[in-house]
Design a protein that fits this description.
Elements lengths: L2 H13 L2 H8 L3 H15 L4 E3 L4 E3 L1 H25 L4 E7 L1 H18 L3 E7 L2 H9 L5 E4 L8 E15 L3 H8 L5 H4 L4 E3 L5 H12 L9 E4 L3 H9 L4 E5 H9 L4 E4 L2 H4 E9 L6 H12 L3
Parallel strand pairs: 3-4, 3-5, 7-8, 7-9
Antiparallel strand pairs: 1-2, 5-11, 6-9, 6-10, 6-11
Helix pairs in contact: 1-2, 1-3, 1-4, 2-3
């Protein structure tokens, strides 16, 4: 098995055509066919079912496609790292809150001091970033929950807290005026939740569990991956949500949302910087780590 065979296979899957794959790679169609046949022989499994009228990827082919994409990406990064020393690139994986609300200013400030360093950022949920670090896709990760894996250094770099956000209307303004605990009543409202795998969702789950509220008792009207979408849905009156105060900050300032504090033990959290312990970090990545340590976030 070699890179050319994997590249041919990936391109066939993406183009859904041997002919178009050959044109994209500037090789003959017979070369593409040979590469696919060699892969199938070595792996002793059928990857592509091909007739004169259709092309279908087998389940094993789909599995190989995911592996092949990672292998080719790592190969490209290796070539770049070894052949273009003048281009110093830091590959970052970031979950939603760090990516959208912390990194933009942090990278802009760092860039003013280090104009020869560039960043490639991949956004996913916290678990997706941890998985990417395991696969060697990133130099550093920024996530919304701690990781107990001994293969990683996981360091708090910023404080955040969770709040309940609601629309601004007479109904919720009356809740704001009351001095007693209104959280049990608020949680009977239609609720919009984050997706599984995010640090925000984990914090919300902890709060609900410690409040003795099962998810089945909630009136969940939507599960949404994007914080901006959640804020707009809540502002529009679709329901309430439990999200990061950093994410809600601009809507709160503009008085488009109301925020209700959660008990301190369930609301405050750290955001974490994570990297592999045994991964040799280039000097310019260490410079960025030092800059983060000195920044007031």
């Amino acid at each position: 098995m070699d890179f050319k065979q994997l590249q041919s296979f990936v391109t066939v899957v993406q183009e859904e055509s041997f002919t178009q794959a050959a044109g994209r790679l500037f090789v003959s169609q017979s070369t593409i066919s040979t590469h696919i046949h060699q892969l199938e022989s070595e792996l002793n499994t059928k990857l592509i079912l091909r007739t004169t009228k259709s092309l279908q990827i087998t389940p094993k082919g789909r599995e190989l496609y995911d592996y092949a994409l990672n292998i080719l990406e790592l190969k490209e990064r290796m070539v770049q790292a070894c052949s273009i020393e003048s281009r110093r690139i830091i590959h970052l994986g970031a979950s939603t809150i760090p990516s959208a609300y912390i990194l933009p200013q942090l990278l802009a400030d760092f860039g003013k001091l280090h104009q020869d360093i560039y960043f490639i950022i991949h956004q996913s949920d916290s678990q997706g970033i941890i998985n990417g670090l395991k696969d060697g896709l990133f130099n550093l990760g920024f996530i919304g929950m701690s990781c107990e894996n001994n293969d990683f250094c996981c360091l708090p770099f910023c404080q955040d807290r969770m709040v309940i956000i609601t629309p601004v209307n007479e109904h919720f303004l009356q809740y704001k005026q009351r001095k007693e605990n209104v959280l049990p009543e608020l949680l009977r409202e239609p609720l919009i939740l984050r997706e599984k795998g995010s640090g925000s969702k984990k914090m919300a789950d902890n709060f609900l569990a410690n409040s003795g509220i099962a998810e089945s008792e909630l009136q969940i009207v939507a599960r949404v991956n994007d914080q901006e979408t959640i804020k707009n849905l809540v502002a529009g009156g679709m329901g309430i949500s439990i999200i990061s105060e950093k994410a809600a900050h601009n809507f709160l300032q503009e008085k488009r949302l109301l925020a209700f504090e959660l008990p301190q033990s369930f609301s405050e959290r750290s955001l974490y910087l994570i990297y592999r312990k045994n991964y040799l970090l280039p000097s310019y990545v260490k410079e960025f780590l030092a800059f983060i340590g000195q920044s007031k976030l």
